[in-house]
Design goal:
Elements (H helix, E strand, L loop, with lengths): L10 E5 L28 H13 L4 E5 L9 H9 L6 E6 L4 H10 L4 E5 L5 H8 L4 H14 L3 E8 L8 H5 L1 H4 L3 E6 L18 H6 L4 E2 L8 E4 L7 E4 L12 E4 L4 E3 L8 E2 L5 H13 L20 H4 L2
Parallel strand pairs: 1-2, 1-10, 2-3, 3-4, 4-5, 5-6, 6-9
Antiparallel strand pairs: 7-8, 8-9, 10-11, 11-12
The protein binds S-adenosylmethionine and iron/sulfur cluster (SF4).
């Protein structure tokens, strides 16, 4: 279905939980978050109904995210049921990878075809610092497990943070030479609770082009990342300039939070509730979300924060 600006909306990002086994500094407060009561969150049946409704309106691609989707107890059942929905052609997941050593085979069998795995540094001490509680080796084992399992595509997502990991751009990019993975650098977005980062942290993705002069433009795939390639690499380098060059004109997505709020735009506070809706009401809310999708969000910068009133773990990045 097209929105009121002629954009075909085909992509639903579905957050299944706002809980996480890490506490990344740019995403969550240090103590985690207050767990909402069970009754405030979408049930598995409501999630599946939402995906069925979305598919009937033209959604073809589903990304399951969070919070950390793999901490959700019924995640395999959710994936299996969503992958079986008529019209859904592709099911992907974004994960921190920590639980992949245990879950990669079942996840693949449940219908998840592609994985984005988050990794901001290759240094143990820095990984512990940015995630507050994480162990680098666990994330690396997760990537190994995903590679062994043979998902159709694996992308490594790195949030580019000036003064933290800009010195690691070459080492992180080199993962695309060693393994058949794309490495994507994402600009740090100024969400509600990541004030701890000073202006220098908000580096534009052009810093990657400067650090890697040998990058060659690669064939583009229509996604939000500008694609490049290192010589003799097995995968691409993607630049996601969410702050310096937003991609609203090509935005084809809507989001659904774990507590059932449809968000037409990541950086707007507009939310339409699906919690407790039957099929007809859910369809009407989804139609409204697509129709009311704004043309563009307000400009973001180190000093102009997102208008979304949630952190990324509560939206589904
Ligand atoms: N827990 C999973 C993970 O980390 O991959 C999925 C959820 S996480 C919110 C999804 C993605 O959002 C991650 O790649 C994370 O690095 C990114 N993210 C979170 N907060 C962000 C921010 N303020 N700016 C840019 N990316 C952010
Ligand atoms: Fe958890 Fe992902 Fe947020 Fe890190 S970015 S705290 S792993 S939800």
């Amino acid at each position: 279905m097209k929105d009121s600006f002629g954009r075909e909306i085909t992509y639903l990002r579905l957050s299944v939980t706002d809980l996480c086994n890490l506490r990344c500094q740019y995403c969550m407060p240090p103590d985690g978050i207050c767990k909402k009561t069970h009754s405030e969150m979408l049930t598995e049946d409501e999630i599946v109904l939402a995906v069925e409704t979305a598919a009937s309106l033209g959604i073809r691609k589903l990304r399951i995210t969070g919070g950390e989707p793999l901490v959700k107890k019924n995640i395999l059942s959710i994936c299996r049921r969503c992958a079986a929905v008529n019209g859904i052609e592709e099911v992907c997941m974004t994960t921190n990878g920590i639980l992949l050593p245990q879950l990669a085979p079942q996840l693949h069998r449940a219908g998840v075809q592609r994985l984005n795995i988050s990794l901001d540094t290759l240094c143990e001490e820095k990984y512990a610092r940015i995630t507050r509680i994480g162990k680098l080796q666990q994330a690396l084992s997760g990537i190994e497990a995903a590679l062994t399992e043979g998902f159709s595509k694996i992308k490594i997502n790195t949030v580019l943070i000036g003064g933290f990991n800009d010195d690691e751009i070459p080492a992180l990019a080199a993962l695309s030479k060693e393994y058949p993975v794309d490495v994507r650098f994402i600009e740090l977005m100024p969400m509600t609770e990541n004030e701890a980062f000073g202006e220098e942290a908000y580096l534009p993705c052009d810093a990657v082009l400067q650090a890697l002069p040998q990058l060659q433009p690669a064939e583009q795939d229509g996604g939000v990342a500008r694609l490049y390639r290192l010589p003799e690499a097995k995968g691409n380098i993607g630049l996601i300039s969410a702050v310096s060059q937003h991609f609203c004109a090509e935005c084809n997505r809507i989001r659904l939070t774990a507590d059932g709020k449809l968000k037409p735009c990541l950086h707007s506070d507009q939310e339409l509730s699906l919690k407790g809706c039957g099929p007809d009401e859910m369809r009407l809310q989804m139609l409204r979300a697509i129709e009311e999708k704004p043309l563009c969000h307000e400009p973001l910068s180190a000093t102009a924060r997102s208008k979304a009133k949630r952190n990324m773990n509560k939206i589904g990045g």
